[in-house]
């Protein structure tokens, strides 16, 4: 088996002051713990208080989404004044794109799962700079896990270091969060390669499964930055490869992204591009 190495096309990431890394990681971890407690206490309680729809009846937003994002914004404004916060529920300040750093939060990624009581939703928070995610923290309440990473410092799951193991995709699982137009062909080609496809309903947790070594790859389209920034940091720090839909290295792609363990990327990209 030929094992791929990390792509070298990207420039070296911007340096980050160590004190900022440590403090951002600590505060993000504290917020993730707060969120996990709230989500655990309220998930699946029938019709959620304040639950409404966005674009369609399956596109939920609840009081928990709003409350957690407000809490996140209050804490970050106090701890990191001057760093803008971009969030799913309350949007982005006009200067966020030009700021040296920005926080990106999705208070409940997988809200439909949360409303239904399906144990697959997450809180996602990331600090991002011009080189991509700097810090990423994901709370996985149903599994009582907090996953945390910082640039150059690796990944920890409840304090235990994790890294990916290079392998072929054969016999493994791929997490796919894809449009109806792309999903059938991708699943067909993956099945021909003896790989199972799982649709989980949370982009953050789909990518996180690659960082944890549970899945050989994650393939996504139609997401927003807050869905993937925290998990992309986990994946990169665990040693996974993060590329855009064309296979170009990118720490935080837009439009489409493939995250894979070394040794699996080429085949997964082949399934992604087949029948296009």
Automatic annotation (TrEMBL):
PANTHER family: INOSITOL MONOPHOSPHATASE, INOSITOL-1-MONOPHOSPHATASE-RELATED. It comes from Pseudonocardia xinjiangensis. InterPro entries: Inositol_monophosphatase-like (IPR000760), Inositol_monophosphatase_CS (IPR020550). It is an enzyme of class 3 (hydrolase). It comes from the Bacteria. The keyword Magnesium applies. It holds the Pfam family Inositol_P. The keyword Magnesium applies. This is inositol-phosphate phosphatase. It catalyses: a myo-inositol phosphate + H2O = myo-inositol + phosphate. Its EC number is 3.1.3.25. Keywords: Magnesium, Metal-binding.
């Amino acid at each position: 088996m030929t094992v791929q190495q990390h792509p070298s096309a990207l420039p070296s990431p911007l340096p980050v002051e160590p004190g900022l890394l440590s403090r951002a990681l600590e505060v993000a971890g504290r917020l993730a713990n707060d969120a996990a407690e709230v989500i655990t206490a309220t998930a699946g309680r029938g019709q959620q208080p304040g639950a409404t729809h966005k674009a369609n009846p399956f596109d939920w937003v609840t009081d928990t989404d709003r409350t957690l994002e407000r809490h996140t914004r209050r804490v970050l404004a106090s701890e990191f004044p001057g760093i803008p916060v971009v969030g799913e529920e309350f949007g982005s300040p006009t200067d966020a794109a030009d700021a040296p750093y920005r926080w990106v939060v999705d208070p409940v990624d997988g809200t439909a799962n949360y409303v239904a009581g399906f144990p697959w939703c997450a809180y996602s928070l990331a600090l991002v700079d011009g080189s991509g995610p700097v810090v990423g923290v994901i709370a996985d309440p149903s599994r009582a896990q907090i996953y945390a990473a910082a640039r150059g410092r690796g990944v920890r799951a409840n304090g235990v270091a994790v890294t990916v193991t290079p392998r072929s995709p054969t016999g493994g699982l791929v997490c796919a969060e894809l449009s109806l137009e792309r999903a059938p062909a991708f699943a067909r080609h993956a099945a021909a390669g003896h790989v199972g496809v799982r649709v989980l309903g949370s982009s953050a947790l789909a990518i996180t499964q690659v960082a944890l070594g549970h899945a050989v790859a994650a393939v996504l389209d139609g997401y927003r930055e807050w869905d993937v920034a925290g998990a992309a940091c986990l994946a990169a720090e665990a040693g996974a490869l993060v590329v855009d839909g064309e296979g170009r290295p990118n720490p935080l792609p837009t439009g489409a992204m493939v995250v894979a363990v070394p040794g699996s990327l080429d085949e997964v990209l082949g399934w992604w591009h087949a029948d296009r």
